Amino acid sequence: MEVISNSPAETEALGARLAAGLSPGDIVAFTGDLGAGKTAFTRGLATGLGIEARVTSPTFTIVNEYEGGRLPLFHFDMYRLGSSDELFDIGWEDYLARGGVCAVEWSEIVEDALEGDVIRVDIRRGAGESQRIITITGGPDA
User: Is it true that domain 2-133 has CATH number 1.20.1250.20?
Assistant: First the structure.
């Protein structure tokens, strides 16, 4: 499915719609340029899961954990990782086993660690400053 978003609010709304169909253990793997809207989409996932906490980019912490919703949300940023070996070092398998949703920014860096039915979300800049072209493959219909 391809969607044109014209604002961060529309990107968040799309994330919230996708979250409605997510199940424990689902992985949402993001690709896209720096500043394209991956964290905005993840804010929408959190909203759709009923999480009220403020969602921020985990660039320097590698992972932010959010609980209090229908499912926990584990928001990963792989930008600073060199390989999937480093992902396993921080407990990737433990996060998968906890029954939440794993939202993975810069997923191409750890592609070989992503198993099963991964929901892929590619976000690219569109024609205008705020326009984004979002392509979602796999998972429930958004």
Answer: no
Dihedral of alpha carbons 56, 61, 67, 71, sign: positive
pLDDT band of 47, cuts 50, 70, 90? very high
Cα 98 to Cα 103: distance, rounded to the nearest angstrom: 14
Task: Check if the beta carbon of residue 66 is closer than 8 Å to that of residue 55.
Answer: yes
On the 0-12 / 13-18 / 19+ scale of CB atoms within 10 A, 66 is buried
Q: How far apart are CA 67 and CA 73, in angstroms?
A: 6
* Type of residue found at 113: A
For residue 54, report the phi and psi dihedrals to the nearest 5 degrees. -75, 125
**Residue 45 contacts residue 97 (beta carbons within 8 Å):** no
Q: Are 47 and 16 in contact (CB under 8 A)?
A: yes
CB proximity list for 61: less than 8 A, separation 6 or greater: none
Return the residue matching tokens 């991956």.
Answer: 38
Question: Domain map of the chain by residue range?
Answer: 2-133
pTM: 0.90
